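Annex B. Sample input.
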Amino acid sequence: MKNILIVDDDIETSLKYKKWLEEDEEGFNLTLINDPELAEQNFKPGNYDLVLIGFKMSVMDGFNLYDKLHEISKKVEDTPKEFRVCFMTSSVINYKALADIHPELGQECYVSKEVPKEVFVKHINSLIP
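Annex B, continued. Sample output.
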């Protein structure tokens, strides 16, 4: 079973995504945390196949959380140092600007919050081998 962590302070949207993924036949084990600081405190490297992070959150933006989770992951021995991430955004995506900030992330690491269920689930399935 694939393990996914969803972190977004938009409770309604994150619950919608959790429901959509729970209904998918691929079978996902989902953890939902609506507070990025709590997600940082409870992050266990190697536990997740994918981390979905809200791009804009009130306490901490998605990139800051990603950087903090990445640092936590690098400090733990005998676990994968990298984890797949996908940023969820309701904004227009400027891929060039984002590539300047995090060149290791490709365009597939972003998903619009406006996409229909089928597109969202297909995208998430494509990110997890």
